[in-house]
Amino acid sequence: MIRILFFVLLVLCLALGFAWLADRPGELSLIWQGQLIEMSLMRAASILISLFAAVLIVVWLLRTIWLSPHTVTRYFRSRKRDRGYQALSTGLIAAGAGDANLARKLAARTRNLISSDQEPLIHLLEAQTALIEGKYDDARKKFEAMADDPETRELGLRGLYLEAKRLGANEAARQYAERASEKAPHLPWATLATLDHRSQARQWDEAIRLLDQSRAAHVLEKNEADRKKAVLLTARAMERLDADPKSARDDAQAALKLDDRLVPAALVAAKALFREENLRKGASILERMWKLDPHPDIARLYVRARGGDSALDRLKRAKKLESLRSNNAVALATVAEAALDARELALARTKAEAAARLEPRESIFLLLADIEEADTGDEGRIRHWMAQALKSPRDPAWTADGVTSPVWLPVSPVSGRLDAFEWKAPPSQIAAATEDGHLNPAQAIRTHPPVATVPRPVEEPAPERTVEAAPTAERDQTERERVERERAGPEKAISVPDRKEPAASPAKGKDAEEAPDPFFGRPPDDPGVREPAAAERTTTNFRLF
Hints:
The chain is mostly helical. 64% of the residues lie in helices and 4% in strands. The protein has helices spanning 2-23, 41-97, 100-113, 121-133, 136-148, 153-167, 170-183, 188-200, 204-216, 222-240, 245-258, 263-275, 279-292, 296-303, 311-324, 329-341, 345-358, 362-375, 379-391, 441-446, 472-488, 490-495, 506-514, and strands at residues 27-32, 35-40, 397-400, 403-405, 422-424. It has a 3-stranded antiparallel sheet with strand order 4-3-5, with no helix packed on it. The termini are far apart. Residues 432-437, 455-476 and 487-545 have low confidence and may be disordered.
């Protein structure tokens, strides 16, 4: 662009000069070797400029002829270099695609066309080709040569780091990552790898300092850096909780400021405050976290915040949690557990069944089995809930890299990755197979068997009311009818008792047939809770729900 402007400016100046001469005509006389030469001033200027242009053209031609060998050599060298770069580019593409044969051929062609000193990417192509072919020793040698070259140091260190991780040489991988972070602190992979290694060694102070340096250098995004620092602060607070609750509280609260949804930080902060006898503030932290994320660990710590509380006090605290997040399966299960401890079995059963309807999981059905054992002690009903627990999805747990942990951990024990644990269902969980292809909590509770009668011997039993006094044919007929009712469907199995009952009035039998089965719980005319006849009260003792 500058050359074009210069050329236009030169032409304009010449035009102005000729125009100026044309406005001022004159004659030019020249005596040279006794001859008089006369011409106009305009002609003299034109001849002079033409001679100057001719001299320039002659000089350019002579220079071109003189430099032509070098020009031809440079042309062929440039063409060869272009072919080499084309082979290098195609070879890198082939290596990335996993074509080892093509990558090896293009690597050899590139080395013939381009010198490795001139283009360091040839080492990268050869190293990638060796990795594809499984020649890991050759690839490692290439990466070591690249690590010694200042121009390709970071690339070589990354290759050596990945090879060390593949071989499981964690110490060597740590050294390569630290070298890369020292030489190039702007590399995210080196910073994260060094951070993971220091976290595995539980060097929380050094890890936090390294993270602060990376945040200042804008290596990591703000949200990612805040999350990782919150995890590191929580890990340090967990270590300081027993020896220094105050420092643990400060670290946990700082972590909550960076990430207000980090449940382990809220748990550590609340535990530290409880140890400082600051029950109200610790409960406030748990309540605030409960509103954001109703977690079972939060409920467990909140209900048992004070060691001297009675079972009724714990039930009150569980009900308060339910008021903060109503219609929640975790809250309902928490109230059911507290009610079971307080021996309020009706409330426990109601809340547990509501939780099973919202979120049918293994722990909820196991809780129903515990409630059944405390309420009726009926082995059949307990086994029913246990069978439902076996078919139900597993409960969420702290999961990372395919393993679960009963408590949250800052670093994965498998991969050593920081902040790897998540609260979710274990990945190995398989959906339970049922007749309908899925678990139906309403069907599970509707098919709940009635309470079995437990006869108790008395001093003078009434022969006409005992099962033993009945004829054998009558007992067989009763047993066949019971089996047919169970095969007919769950409604009939629930509405008809398994024992022989005295004849009821027609009106009462009609009302019993018209009463619908409940979705949860037991109907008032459930045979499992039916009052025995007056004549039977002296011979049989029934256990109620």
